[in-house]
Specification:
- Four copies of one chain form a homotetramer.
- Chain A is of the alpha/beta class.
- Chain A has helices at residues 19-29, 46-54, 67-79, 114-124, 138-150, and strands spanning 36-40, 59-64, 85-89, 104-107, 130-135, 155-170, 173-178, 182-189.
- The first copy, chain A, has one domain (6-189): Rossmann fold (3-Layer(aba) Sandwich), CATH 3.40.50.150.
- The first copy, chain A, has an eight-stranded mixed β-sheet with strand order 3-2-1-4-5-8-6-7, with helices on both faces.
- The first copy, chain A, starts with 18 loop residues before the first helix and ends with a strand.
- Strand 6 (155-170) of chain C pairs antiparallel with strand 6 (155-170) of chain D.
Chain lengths: 190, 190, 190, 190
């Protein structure tokens, strides 16, 4: 079952996708047991680990340019006893061309090279495959939407914005503490 | 895997929990294969069906006072070939006392009798069990929080508000269409 | 014109209502030049100062229990050259009975004594007068709604939740930083 | 005082900016009594009317391509006895070049020609003047941000997203009904 608690992951200063966003991302990705998954900009590997637990007979490739992130991905894979997860220190799109063709791609971070990353995905993703982008900036969201609109022959998409607040108990009161909103774009290869 | 598309469920005018909220609710409920689940105010049965697919060796009891809801729950159970789901036409807390003790309880609607419903759950829920409330009104949320604060010896809780907007393509533009916000309260029996 | 920039106010550690919320609160209060305004839980006096600039021929009474708040209210009144503003060190409802009857009341904080505060307002507020509550906790919101529903002969109300995020420029990107949501309840004396 | 109730405006099917957004837009525009204001994509004229009540010794030019909008703008100007407001049937940037140089520009809608509209504003807006954009689409927001980033020598900006929900009384309950979120971008000419 997906939805590991945030506190269960090993992390340092590397930003980590919050549980609720991670869960929605994984649900949108519709990962099946035999799937090959690319997790680009994998950060701490929290999504990679959960994806690997879904793709039990498949494999997850966690691409991350930050060496500290690579260390964390491997530590989390070990902690959760996930063996079908490979961490790859690389800045996408470098390194993507040698990976097996994916059924699902999750993009948590694309650095500043979203279009070439999407070009490779457009070429390699299997028909019916899904690309899920977590966009925390307006520019990444707009670039993704522009790419999808320019490639309607290849992809169709939907997108949501998710805004979560946590109630925090302060004495006899519960006060809402807002988390930053995020857009989740789901793209299907036609 | 959880996260059936909304469109896949049979529904009529009965309000249905949206996919994203359904998924977060199920994740918070942490349903295990052998679990007994009560789904109170089950509506169309969309949560019940997904819970039944998680509690593969357990059983889900969908309690709903609306006869049209009962019809939909059964139709959806049949559509998704779920056999470990029983629809019970009753207005909670009536009917809860004869059910097997639950591991997890989901409350989508409690009519106007939240406190007596929570009293029965407090008595019957297994230690370590979870109660998840989807609150669409301020009064239900406040009542739930007040109950949990008054029963700290039995329960602890956390709560989030979730606000989702869907981007809708209108010509060359994507416009956000807001869904109504909802609070999800997760309570654990100590 | 209302809408002084947050940075223009003198403040210390005392929490201050953000510009957008202050503006919406003042608009809902519909303060006229001759109005008597009570600002209960006035904090830094940011709302009081803006109210005083609207009630040019009236007077604003800023009630605050925190001595540091009282100091800031007076400093801000001086900075903005507002002379029709009196800071009163008191914990409401104490001190309210000796004030002139109000046309508008703004409640930014009521400590834990909302009901007795609303009782005095119900008695003293002029017919057609407005009470605006900024609620940052679920309990204050629920208490306010319950009070208004129990006193339909005296008041009617409407309420909004406001969630604001600021875009923050980070290199070539704009990222949303969420502010905590707040409820604004507007009550009219029938 | 700004903040006319939505119901007070004459309107038909033309979409109207909601009171809360209108108020925040006007506050960000910081309109002074002598100001020249352009309201581009003025719709029903609700913002134009309120701007005209602020620019009491100035003038507001409401540019709108929709003839029905022009009719509504004039009807609302008459209803609120505003005489310093001129409705101009035109699709911006057409028609802007003959208007007096503005102190403040409000853009509620720019059709598909945001860049040429901003080019004229960049040329004509007085130093220290403000441009406020209400963006309901991701593309308009992204285009605006890109323009401002490309013209840092001329403009600086800030932006917020505003999400409002109204509580609706349903029997003994208050349920949140979400309004669609909107981005408000405030740009200052250096």
């Amino acid at each position: 079952m997906i939805g590991i608690e945030d506190e269960a992951f090993i992390r340092s200063d590397v930003p980590m996708t919050k549980q609720e966003i991670r869960v929605l991302t994984l649900v949108k990705a519709r990962i099946l047991p035999g799937d090959i998954v690319w997790d680009i900009g994998a950060g701490t590997g929290s999504i990679s680990v959960e994806a690997a637990r879904l793709a039990t007979k498949g494999h997850v490739y966690a691409v991350e340019r930050n060496p500290e992130g690579i260390r964390l991905i491997r530590a989390n894979a070990e902690k959760f006893a996930v063996t079908n997860l490979t961490a790859i220190e690389s800045e996408a799109p470098e390194g993507l061309d040698v990976l097996p063709a994916p059924d699902a791609v999750i993009i948590g971070g694309s650095g500043r090279r979203l279009d070439p990353v999407l070009d490779i995905i457009a070429a390699r993703l299997k028909t019916g495959g899904r690309v899920i982008l977590n966009c925390i900036t307006i520019q990444t969201l707009a670039s993704c939407l522009a790419y999808m609109r320019a490639h309607k022959d290849i992809f169709h998409y939907e997108a949501i914005q998710v805004q979560i607040s946590r109630l925090e108990a302060v004495g006899p009161y519960d006060m809402a503490r807002a988390l930053n909103p995020i857009h989740i774009v789901t793209c299907w290869k036609n």
